[in-house]
Each structure stands twice: as C-alpha cells, then as structure tokens.
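Lab meeting, item 3. Inverse folding demo.
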C-alpha cells in the first residue's frame, strides 16, 4: 500500500506510516498545493496510491463518479495531528488493508471506523 497525504494533513504523517513500512508522500512534494480534489484523485489513481485526507469532498467525488479507485481514508475529527490520531489510523489501516487494496472509502473518527466498498452506488 502507498498513501498520498492530502494538503489538509500534516507532512508528519509520513513518519507515522513509515513505522509500518508503508510508503507515503505528502501532496506538497508531488503536486501543486492549489490542485483540485479531482487532480489529486487522478494522480493517486495513476500512481496507485490511497488518498489520506480530512476533506469530505473526496468521498463525494467517489460517489458522484462511482469510481472503484483510488481508495480514500477520511479522518473526521477536530484534532487531525498524528499525536492525537496515530494509533487509531494505524489500527484502521491494518484492519481494512484488504478492503483498501480492493477499493474502499474508510472513514475514521474517535468513536469508530467505517468502510464502504467501491463503487458507491446510490439507492
């Protein structure tokens, strides 16, 4: 698994993922900081990365396009720093590894983690 860290999250997450031998990169190292969510998703798809974000628009993009990839991990808390969320995020990555490889939207908050398999089909 390779993780693309969105601009709204700290580059410090790279060191967190390194602890589990997960390759990761912060968007500021590969793309324009003003890039649209669509551009970030396209880059992640073409380079086989999972998007790690705090932006709910990525889930909306997946639903609107009914895409199967890239997988997206959303953290939905006020404190999104690694010092607060590291253990929960690392545990969720281990728990949902196969779903992320197959295409999924993972939502992580302090109460629980949820998974939606892609594509997201509206009822």
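The presenter then showed the designed sequence:
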């Amino acid at each position: 698994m390779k993780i693309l860290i969105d601009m709204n999250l700290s580059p410090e997450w790279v060191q967190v993922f390194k602890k589990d031998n997960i390759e990761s990169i912060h968007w500021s190292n590969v793309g324009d900081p003003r890039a649209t969510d669509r551009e970030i998703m396209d880059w992640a798809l073409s380079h086989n990365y999972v998007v790690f974000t705090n932006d709910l628009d990525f889930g909306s993009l997946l639903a609107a396009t009914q895409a199967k990839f890239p997988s997206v991990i959303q953290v939905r808390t006020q404190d999104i720093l690694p010092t607060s969320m590291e253990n929960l995020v690392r545990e969720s990555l281990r728990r949902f590894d196969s779903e992320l490889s197959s295409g999924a939207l993972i939502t992580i908050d302090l109460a629980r983690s949820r998974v939606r398999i892609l594509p997201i089909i509206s009822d």
